[in-house]
Structure prediction request, 854 residues.
Amino acid sequence: MTENIVEAKELSYSYPDGHRALEKVSFSVAAGESVALAGENGAGKSTLLQHLTGCLLPSSGALRVAGLSVEKRNLPAVRRAVGMLFQNPDDQLFMPTVFEDVAFGLLNAGVPESGLEPRVMRALETVGAAHLRSRPPYRLSQGEKRAAAIAGVLALEPEVLVMDEPTSGLDPLSRRRLIGLLGTFPHAKIIATHDLDFASEVCSRAIVIHKGRVTGDGPASDIFRDAALLGRSNLEVPLSVASRRG
Amino acid sequence: MPAAPAGCADIGYMDSLAAGGSALHRLDPRAKLLATLAFLAAVVSFDRYQISALIPFSLYPVFLIAAGGLPPGYLLRKALLVSPFAVLLGALNPLLDSHVMLRLGPLAVSGGWVSFASIILRFLLTVLAALALLALTGMNGVCESLSRLGLPRPFVVQLLFLNRYLLTLSAEAASMSRARALRGAGARLRPAVFAQIAGHLLLRTLDRAERVYRAMVCRGFDGRVRAARFPGAGREELVFVAGWTAFFVFFRLVNVPLLLGRLLTGHL
Amino acid sequence: MHMADALISPAVGGTMWAAAGALIAYSAGKVGDEADERKVPLMGVLGAFVFAAQMMNFTIPGTGSSGHMVGGLLLAILLGPYAGFLVLASVLTVQALFFADGGLLALGCNIVNMGFFTCFAAYPLYRWLAGDDSRKGRILAAATAAAAFSMALGASGVVADTVLSGVSELPLGTFALLMVPIHLIIGLAEGVITAGVVSFVVKARPELLRQANPAPAAMSLRRLLLVFAAAAAVTGGALSWFASRAPERMDSAMPAMRPFSAARPGSLRAFLAGLQERTSFLPDYGFRKPAEAAPVVEGSRWPSVEGATTLSGLVGGLLTLLLAGLAGLALRRRQRAPGA
Prediction:
């Protein structure tokens, strides 16, 4: 129980307009585990991710992150434990330069000025973006933006990385680099995506969501080969798996 | 609509100039800001018929442009393109003020023409200096120095956010109006249609604001945007500000070109 | 409506900087008190939106000319007056810096003329006229009236600043008659656009406007009138102060102006043409003797009619310009040398 970094029990959520986005979702993620969250658009992936960062609170059921119940009073601690990577890096890189953006979270966490530079640079070096430090975000390529955004999250040393469509907008080379980079991270990872080829390379486990319900949960190699399950959830068997099989 | 991409490219270009590596680029932004403000104050404090005494002041923008390795042609074109208002208003002066101030042989020059020329000169000087300041310092540097000169933090943060999303949103607006132009078959943009496009853009903007807010909250935002400290001002900054200010004061008080001209023409 | 540095005297520029600075500090404090964290990114992104929207030109029906949105009233409606003012001030600052659109010294004037009058005079009027009604017609009427009002006030501000600075030769009356009607028309267009955008948002996502601007605070009529009275007093006071200082410049200096100011303001071109005719036929017809100019132009050692002095100034000036250019070239060469 304590080893699970994320623990959802019968989590349900309805939007104020009455739309039921999540229906009794239960799953758990252990430390260091990489889990793909697969589902068509509107399946409830983003709603679920927003719960993990406490931007939405469950209508019913329970959600624990890093041993803390996700509720109002725990939000600062929960958000320290979760590193959230948004779909559009432009939404995430809001500060004037890459350096300041990476420093944003650190300054909020009360890191003193003296400790700032080494921590920012360490995070930037990890993602191979040290040379971008004084560049403004709007002058970066999509791949560089992604790297800078990851650095901003890594600098805070989270326990779990949560990513929303990390490969969207990336060219093949940047996508390949991202796959290599993620492989070096020891963190638990929850990756919402419909790039199942990417997911099958990065994740050992997959959870399939369809219409707000968990319809499949198991080893990625099994899930991504289950054409019937993927078809029911309006997904496709990833090309890499299909060609390996054929 | 061609204005949108041009405007974007412009901001982008000014910004890339600010990334240069000259000694002037490295100077503390506050020093450049203060010297430029002193320059502006000195230039506009001359009376309206002044021309010759203004000319030494051209050394400041010329210095910034030359020592900073900035493209003079580009800045000059930019200066000439902007704000026709000043030129327009100034152009009325010759019509309104026709008492003769100067006779060059058979040519009688009225006070209006003199003050018109003075306005154009001031306009070029002030605009060039301001553009050179930005091209050497960058928007972020200017904002940071404003912040440390006492501008309220919420306003500085506002400037930084505005600058950050300027290009992103301009690109969105440009692609929206391109899409409309493609379907509109060259029809002009009526206010009602404009309001719809702007409304769409506004909705997307509001959504973006919400996403940005969430991203901020996820990294511990609590209502305050903190700034990392920047290296302080040193001797070079002091010399820069003091030197130029002394220059401005001297040339504000002494009309050197006039003395020079008298010497040359023998009218003492 | 952007004023340029070249037309401003340091006294006017400095005063308006102080006024704008005080308004910014006050508004920043108010926005800080609201403690609405969401407003931080919202304001920033909305500023960028106004910028982006200004890049799209629309055609004003029936005229063939094009205009763009100013956006001040829209910002105040979306964010409330204080945050709206800060955003507009930031937009003007960036315009001054990036595009030299309105100068740095004139920035204070521009912030007051375009920001203060929209957010603190026109917006209360809008709230009062629009109420909580979300019908399109009412929004349209309220926005049009408020925008036209703000533009007229802003134009008067431009006139006051310019005339007080004394760089332009345009006399007060003429200038006001040029600026105010034009800006009333621009204000009508702005109002229509603002109403269009607001109605669009109200229809598409009614909750957004309430969310963005939770403070209903529809100002009481009394407070509204007080604001107007204050604005009128400031403008009027400034203008009459000028009028009392330089009466000749306004009236006796402009014999040609009287029929104009009395008649319809439509025939500007005819008026200017007539004026030009007059002045070119009578090259020595001095509207104003240099001696009269002295009290207006402070510390003027220069307005001397002695040709020789002026000629010396010209020659010396050209020489100095040449020297400055050479210095620049030399610096540039030195700059390139280490790199090459």
Chain A is about 40% helix and 25% strand. The first strand of chain A starts at residue 4 and ends at 14. The CA atoms of residues 21 and 47 of chain A lie 7 Å apart.
